Every structure is written in structure tokens, then in C-alpha cells.
């Protein structure tokens, strides 16, 4: 230990000595640097400057002697005469400031930039075309006559030289403007000039937007551009710029045959090399390909897996082409096998859930999410559903996403968890009361957003509510759930209806006038009244009051059908041709008659005559005799309505039935 301690002491003393030497050396360097930093003198002061330099290094002042005992280095005065003659100096706040203005420097830089541009090829043409673009881009500030002249001049400049413009970030905007204002023939002319360059344009950060403008609205241009992507899908789908433009073309304007060619390249290299350009019957259905070539299943599935995994690992999961490829892979996996399980694990292990969220809003992606929910166990289903927290309303209103909610209703056995995860967002429970009611009315009157509300209220698949695409997916899901879900479907549905109904019933009582003003609102009222569970008295009372106070709202066909169904007590079954009365019964007919007693004759002789017919036919009508007496008092009015007059020569059909029933009741 003593040796170590001694070694440390020696090293400490050595470092101190070295530090002293270093200080003196630095002081010497400071003197030399100070001299070097003095700028060259002007010619007239050269002799004086030389003398100063000589005196600075004079041997009469030895550096070591001057710095003896740590004395500070002598300060050298730099005379103003030693400064450059071409720089003016001024003092602001004790500091010397360069007098040359930044404006002059920028002007010089601008001149140099213009000189550099002037040396480049087509400099004059590009400069003039950019001037035209500057004028054209402000559409509202340019009269049509002037714009037409500018477009003619612009095409005279770029014709035959389009390729020289498109690969520069500034001049490509000129071509985009030409495409925007050019006629069909001029657009096709530009497309022909760029033939053979579209793959490079797609990979360009700025030129890809030119492809987007060219390809829209002209099948001839589309058929020029899309074939240039053939054979390069694997490269382009991984490119940060080209992937998006290729996927947009695939999703929006490509023909089914073009889509099939692009998708088949995901299945292997042989579909790139041996794909005939003349074959218009190509399909992207992998199942059909494997049926024709079962020996190729292994290589095709492996290649497809590699391509999809690459994009999933890079978190680039928004491509429709990727969703189509993943769906083809999943539906051709063995049901319950390791391949299918691996796909489900890959989807649910995404911590941020971007993959599932992106897939939910495309046709193939939403179907894949539905299949994943159907085949998963209860824990995985819960994990998948939680991914969509915060976007439930978006799912409900999307043409493809809403079917995911319907699948969750049909396959998840834990209805308490489903209700807590989905219904608070759909019912806007975090919003203020007035805002919540307004948003709910907008949802239930939306063609798609209303589906998750009304789907549960019907015991069967409502054909009038669901698109054909939804029906086919749900039938497939119902077959799968026979082996993957345990709870009885009707019990599951009833438990969810119980959690959903009362807020919807309350909405009818609070926003009655808004709902009866639209056909979708009237459909919503009927479905909730017939299929919902809860206290419906306030809602029915509000409907009867609106029918009395706002009779003009009830003269519409959809409002009349709604009131007639409510009076009948249930929906009409076309197969059995009978009314399916709700349990417990609504008994709306007596409530409606008590509110609208004074205007019942107008109803009986007008557009709502069939509502009065339904009142007479209802077995639960308590005030039947009072109704018949009120009609008999105005029988002459009813007979005139039944005969018809003017344009209505046939007469009121409902009034005729009323007269017949009155005759029978005598």
C-alpha cells in the first residue's frame, strides 16, 4: 500500500510541474497568435507594420525572462492602422462591429445563385415557365382569357422537354400546373413524353404528385402508367415515396385485372417473370392459384409471409395492398394451425395497435380483423378490442370498420367487458348532455353509424339494414363461432341489448321532434321501441304530444308508417303475414287517441287514415267506442273523402276501410 501511495504522490507532483511548464508555453503561444491575428497592413503603412513585427520578436525581451515567476504575458496594442483598409469599423456597446450590411451580402449571394442557374441547361425556359406558374397558381387573380394565353405559352415551352422539368423540385410544379389547366389532348401528350419514366417519377419526392394528377380521370393515361409498375412491386412497396403513390393507384383507379397483376407479385418471383401481359383473365385469388398448383403452396406462402412481415416490422401498415395480401395469406392458412395463430399473434403484439387500426378501415383489412376476432381465444379477443379504444365512433361510421363492432357483439362471450369497451364511446357518455344528444341524433340518422345501434335490437340479420358485404361476412363469422364461442347467441344479444337500450329510449323522449322529421329517425324510433328493454312510457308520451302539437310532421309517409307500427304494437312479419307484438305490449294506441282526440276525424279522412284503422283493429284499444262515436258524428266527411275529388279520383283507401268497419260494428 505504501508503494501505491508513493506512486500516486509522485504522479501528483509531476503533473503540477508539467502544468507550470504548460502555462509558460501557452503564454508564448498567446504572444505569437496575437501577432498572427493582426491583419495585413495597407501598402502605405507597410514599413510601420514591419517595424512593429520586428520589435515584437526582439531578442532584447526574452520570453522566458519576461514570464519569470508566473508574470503575465505582455499585452500587445493593435493599432487601427493594422486593420484592412477595405473594412469599416464602428463601435456599439464597446464592441467592434462589421459595417458591411447583410442586405448587400444577400444581394451578392442572390446574384451568384442566378449566375449558377444561368449556366445550367434550359435555364431560360425554366425561368420563364416558373414566371408563368407564379401567375397561374393564383387562379382567382387571373382572368380566364389571360389564363388561356399563359397555358398556350407554357405548353410551347415544355413540349418536347417535359423530362427536363419533372425531376427538379421547383420545375415539376410547372408540369403539374400544365396538367391542371391543360385539355385532355395536352395531358395525354405529357403522359406520352414521360413514358418509361414513371417508376423513377414514383420514387421522386416531388414528381410522385405529378403521377397522381395525371392518372386521375383518363383511362388511357392510367393504362400507360400502371403497367410500368409491373415487375417492380417488391421494390416499390418498400420505397418510402413510391409505396404510397402505387398503393393509391391500386386502391382507387386500377382495374380488377391491374390489381390482380400487382397483387400476384406478392406470391413469388415466377408471377413476375412468367406473367403474360395479354392474359386479361388473371385473378389475385390465392385460393384459386393453390387449387390449380397445390405443389407451389410452400414457396408461395413463404414468399408472401416474408413480404408482409417486412412491412409489418417497418411499421408501414397503411397500405391496402398489404391488407389484401395478409387476408389472402390468412384465409389460406389451415384453420387453427400454426400459420393462422402466428398471424393473430403478429397483429395483437403491436403495442401501439397501428396495424389493426389501419386494417379496420379497408375492405380486406376489416374482414381479416373480423376473422382474427372469431378465431381468437377470449384473452386475445379482449386484447384486440382494446386496441380500438378511442376510435369506436370512427369504426361505427366507417363503411368497412363497423362490421368489426358487429363481430365483437357476436363472438365475445364477456358481454360486460364488451359493453364497457364499446358503448360509452358510441353513446358519447363523456360529453355534456346537450352535446351528447346532438351527436347521438347525428349518429342514428347516419346510414352507416346507425348500424351498430340497430343491429342488436333485431333477433335476426336485418336485411334492410345491412349491406350484402356485411351479411356475407357475418354468416361466415356465425359458422366459426359455433366452435370458438361458448355462450348462446340469443343470450349474448339480450345482455348487450339490456346495456344499450335505456340511453336510446331516453334519446327518443328528449329529441322526438328531430327524430320524427327524418325517415332514418322514424326507423330508429320503431326499432328501439320494439327491440329495446327499459322504461318506454316517457318516450311514447313524447311521441303522442308531438303528434298532437305538430300534425304537419305526421303527414309524411315515414312518420305515418312509424305511428301505424307503434299503434299495431310491433313489426309486421312478411313471412307469417302477422304483426309480432312486443312483450310487454306498448299500448300506444290509447295514449295516442287520448292526445289527438280532437283531430281524429282529420286523420281518418287524410294521409294518416290507416293509423285510425290500426286503432280500431287493435285488441288493446280501450277507447274503441269513443273513437267509433267520433267518426260517426262526421260520417259525411268520411264518405266524401272515400269518394275522392279532383286529382284523387280513387278516394282515400283508409277511409273506405273505416266506413266498412263502422258498418260492421252496428
Automatic annotation (TrEMBL):
Annotated keywords: Repeat, Ribosome biogenesis, RNA-binding, rRNA processing
Region of interest: Disordered: 1-110, 641-666
Segments of skewed composition (Basic and acidic residues): 1-12, 641-651
Pfam families: CPL
Biased composition (Polar residues): 24-58, 79-102
Zinc as UniProt keyword: no
Domain CPL: 449-576
A GO term from the CC aspect: nucleolus
A single MF term (Gene Ontology): mRNA binding
Biological process, per Gene Ontology: regulation of translation; rRNA processing
Its biological purpose: RNA-binding nucleolar protein required for pre-rRNA processing. Involved in production of 18S rRNA and assembly of small ribosomal subunit.
Name of the protein described by the UniProt record: CPL domain-containing protein
